[in-house]
Amino acid sequence: ETGVGRRIHEQLKAVNEKLEDRVNTRTMELQERETRLWDLYEHSPVAYASLDIKGNFIKHNLAFAQLTGREREDFSHLKFNDVIKHSEEFTQELLDHVLSGEVTSDIRVELFRDDKEKKFASMTVISKLDEQGKLEDIRLSLLDVTQRELVRKELKYNQAQFSSMVSNCLLYTSPSPRD
After folding, report:
1. Reduced to 3 states, what is the DSSP secondary structure of residue 125?
2. Residue 56: closest CA among 78, 74, 71
3. Cα 175 from Cα 172, distance rounded (Å)
4. How many C-beta atoms lie closer than 10 Å to residue 21's C-beta?
5. Helix ranges restricted to H, the chain
6. Measuring CA to CA, which residue among 140, 144, 101, 100 is closest to residue 124?
7. 3-state secondary structure of 117
8. Which residues share a beta bridge with 141?
9. Cα separations in angstroms, 72 against 35, 49, 60, 133, 137
10. pLDDT tens string 4-54
């Protein structure tokens, strides 16, 4: 009996050690994958942030901090309104979309930056709902469109100047009325 019990105990011990090795290997692989995914999130060219239902920042990536021109630790006391320039009407419309679970994409926004540099972004807003359909958090993704926005404004200005010049030329070149 003791010989059989000892052998079973030895076999169970060996199986347990193999299982522990497998769990340790899988845990290390999972941690490596998690680290790679976190690095992709942190260093993405897209700025990501999550807000709670009161508009407080829960988390954000490095690109978001850089785009908004703020230090990472500043976000612990900042709200959506402190970073995204908008009207009350905009806030209400956005909130209505978020609460209905709609994805709102390609919204042009201007950012409030500490250094006062003008920055524009294309923002997508997605609401994360829990299993009961209750709003869990709000996820933002922003893409820097500052250069595109500045070129668009310059083009609009140049078009207005050109139209004005053409109108003036037509006034000066049109024949004068005869008696």
Report:
1. strand
2. 78
3. 8
4. 10
5. 2-42, 62-68, 80-83, 88-99, 146-173
6. 140
7. coil
8. 48, 124
9. 19, 12, 8, 31, 20
10. 888 888 999 999 999 999 999 999 999 999 989 988 889 898 999 999 988
Which conformational region is residue 70 in: left (phi greater than 0), alpha (psi within -120 to 50 degrees), or beta? beta
Q: What is the pTM of this model?
A: 0.68
Listing DSSP states for 17-28 in one string gives HHHHHHHHHHHH
Q: Please give the structure tokens belonging to residue 112.
A: 């409030």
Please check whether residue 126 is in contact with residue 103, taking contact to mean a CB–CB distance below 8 angstroms: yes
- The type of residue at 122 is S
pLDDT in tens, 89-105: 887 788 778 877 778 88
DSSP code at position 44? -
- The candidate with the shortest Cα–Cα distance to 140, out of 89, 71, 65, 73, is 65
CA distance 93 to 161: 35
